[in-house]
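Researcher: Here's a chain I'd like modeled. Treat it as a single chain, no partners, no ligands.
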Amino acid sequence: MLDALVIAPHPDDAELGMGGTIALMLARGLRVGILDLTDGEPTPRGTPEIRARETAAATAVLGIEWRENLGLPNRRLRATLAARASLAATIRRTRPRWLFSPHWVDAHPDHVAATRLVDAARFWAKLTKCDLPGEPWHPSRVYHYPCVHLKVLLRPAFIVDISDTWETKARSIACYASQFPTPESSPASSPSVPERVDAAARWWGSMIGVARGEPFTAREPIGLRGFGDLF
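Model: Modeled as a single isolated chain. Structure tokens:
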């Protein structure tokens, strides 16, 4: 059903981490879905209703046709057996070729728990003789995108050129206005979240000689059938 399933701990993580790549994949005809694990609330200026409206707006900006929420608890996300079964069932239902999840090192406990959950659910999704609904399915690859809480220097496996889709990413991020500190609540010298994301995209783009890029990591080898897309 899907080529790629982007798994986000909270609504806005997918857009912040890899919104440009999502838009690029869609533009190239790939089927992409986003699964938010929690509703992301409470937050200082948000509510579940506000967050739902912002998520719907960002989804429309990106052009995503499949997006669901697993309904797990925000701030208390854990890779429990029940959560694993729920995510594995979704993987079996959507049958993606690739999974995307946050980098495994992160300052936010929910992000770390999300990636542990993805790894475990990916394994469970292929099991036979189990009580999971649907037919067994095993996504061939798991790739990892950085979240804004990440405080380590990445060594990416590859960087995607998002120069042509940056504006779409920026507009999707802007939909989550309730999630960004206001000028009154942050130091005058502190860049805003959108400014930080833009600066990072410019940096990663400069590493491959383009205007903007998004980095990805992988713990498994990446296979190539040719070098046509490398530059």
